[in-house]
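Revision sheet: structure tokens.
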Amino acid sequence: MKAIVVTDQASGTAGMKLVDRPEPQAAINDVVVKVHAAGFVNTELEWPSTWADRALRERAPSILGHELAGVVTALGYGTTGLSIGQRVFGLADWHRDGTLAEYVAMEARNLAPLPGEVEFTVGASLPISGLTAWQGLFQHGRLLAGQTVIAHGAAGAVGSMVTQLAREAGAYVIGTGRAADRQKALDFGANEFVDLDNDALEDIGRIDLVFDVIGGDIQKRSAKLIRAGGTLVTVVGPTDIRPADGLTVDFVVEADRAQLFEIVQRIRDGRLRTNIGKVSTLDDAVATFNSTERRVGKTVIRVRP
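Predicted:
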């Protein structure tokens, strides 16, 4: 099968190669999925799990990608809840070969059924962005109706999900980003927008929840805006930043079938829109990931027509 692999961490995306690899086999509780569309996050090349397994043994050459939508083609021993021929989408394990390939073997529990009316490219765009937003807002941020939320990077793949889910939950959402992102953030439901290059973040006032996808100085300044009992949720790694009278939670997104179901139902009935930017083929994926163009929205790789 065709797959995109990396062997050298220092090379970054320039080290990606499209190669032939053996088709995977289903282990206990696994399924094999024929991949129709897949997602990729550039920071994967910095993750220790891309280069070593859980026993810290070297993994390279590693197949990249962890988001997918496709069709189940094989079931491992003991696998329940899914069937051969079923349309699925989900989030593959960080420490195993990924989804930028024609087939992937993964744990069945990390997949959810994909409704027939939801396109594979849409399904593949949802797992990381959707689950990150859901878990950050509701599990870690404990968002309640009537609260005020800052969604940093509100025009991005994660930020646009944060904005929509927070608005649906009854929150007032302040989106942030570059000036060029203003209209897109507002179109995804932000009540107002702050241009981080030109507007004063400190003028916003007190906030119940900050959803941080940026880190650095923006994260430090955001922490000072948290009101007593509020939360700064971040996905950019461990941090020493703490609001004076609130909490900081840094987390890594996890696969969750029930949450995937909730997210795709919202896509299905129009309450949630995905934020897809460029769609490329597997043959063109390496060039796409090495492009110097600014990425707008989620890049999705269409593995099959």
